[in-house]
Give the backbone structure.
Amino acid sequence: MAIEKKPRNKMPEQQPEIRARNFKEVALGYTPEMAKEEASRCMHCKNAPCMQGCPVSVNIPDFLAAAATGDFEKAGAVIGRTSSLPAICGRVCPQENQCEKMCLRARVDGAVAIGNVERFVGDYMLEHGGKPQKATRTGKKVAVIGSGPAGLTCAAELSNHGVDVTVFEAFHKAGGVLVYGIPEFRLPKSLVQAEIDKLCGGGVEIKLNTVAGKTLPIEEIAAEYDAVFIGSGAGLPMFMNIPGENLNGVYSANEYLTRVNLMKAYLPNSATPVQLGKKVAVIGAGNVAMDAARTALRMGAENVKIIYRRGREEMPARAEEIHHAEQEGIEFCLLTNPVSFAGEKGWVKSMRCVKMALGEPDKSGRRSPKPVEGSEFDIETDMVIVSLGTRPNPLIKNSFAALQTSEKGTIVVDEETMQTNVDGIYAGGDAVTGAATVILAMGAGRKASKAILEKLGLQ
Ligand SMILES: Cc1cc2nc3c(=O)[nH]c(=O)nc-3n(C[C@H](O)[C@H](O)[C@H](O)COP(=O)(O)OP(=O)(O)OC[C@H]3O[C@@H](n4cnc5c(N)ncnc54)[C@H](O)[C@@H]3O)c2cc1C
């Protein structure tokens, strides 16, 4: 049967020239009519390939069917069976590489905008959905280290089964990368707080400003609780170790984004200001690099360059983020690698780069870049943001030697149960996988909660 063509509903957005100078959300969200219309584009394919593309197997056809009739509450309930943070995942999941990539409608007139509809339903549930009922308490106690998507999901699932959960968070605000990393213009912080309040309503106590392994020994936590879940993320930035990297004005993307997002360095008289660079160079081309570049622009930079040693095809950031960055005027210097920084009076002033050419594919399958002899040139810059990826902070491992970790510092777990080599201690999210995605961290927290409930005899 021929399918009537109905093009995908575009997400309304702030105009690039306006949004490049404000921190308000770029995407404006669907109206209820747009959400219904987009959901009705689902073809309800026999084997639901979209679900195979979703790391937590959300029942996409069912939630779209409910949304298509305008029953957003039912759509929210369907998503809620497998995903705890729909308003967040609808905004930040790389759908184009997951559910939407598998959508068969793509061959007709464009994949169903599953993420955009999920975002609408998530927002609807925050506004209209009630809080989860507080379950009868079981007398069991679990400690969660870290309040990112992995820790929060694990905490909420346990609490919903009557377990009293204490979350220990190093920062003064809960949410992990959702609050300190991903900028306001992609993920409003009021929304993250609303999701946290809803998720943790009743039965979860969050203790902020508590660094497990430093202000509170892990052994002490393990002795006091029936089980422990470690969701401490991967917040340790990597650097290039090239001359001049210690000059003032050279930041890691983590530090820069944390100061701006969490410490509100964009406000005048902030206690932890950042430099207001005019000619900013961001090194790397992942999502974090795009976030840092677009943040620098909003902080008043006149020119922001992305410096990347590979080509366009190899850039790891989401296509949407690259497109948005380009629209806002970020310049891309591809096949370019910094070799040193030079400064004056301790502050960075320029960066020496070398041109690169792509050779054979490396272990990751990407073509490996090689320097082109004699191609050095200088780029003037007064601020550099290094965004080359992160690893788990070694603090937990160093303070708790019994815990088995990999060469890369990630915590080793049994993939079925997420239990570490230490009985009763579980882990998940970026601390186990290395830097990954919100949905994978959330899925790991959920999986660990199931195993913990079984261990405690509650399931
Ligand atoms: C700038 C940026 C942009 C991103 N964009 C996207 C995106 O668009 N889409 C996407 O899917 N993913 C994105 N990611 C990745 C995603 O945010 C992470 O994969 C996800 O947040 C990992 O969740 P987590 O719970 O494992 O760790 P985190 O979110 O890192 O949370 C860990 C928490 O543990 C706390 N902690 C650490 N050590 C201790 C300790 N010793 N004691 C107490 N607390 C501790 C930390 O302070 C933190 O709050 C992005 C990441 C960054 C940095």
Remarks:
- The chain has three domains: 16-128, 141-235+391-455, 239-388.
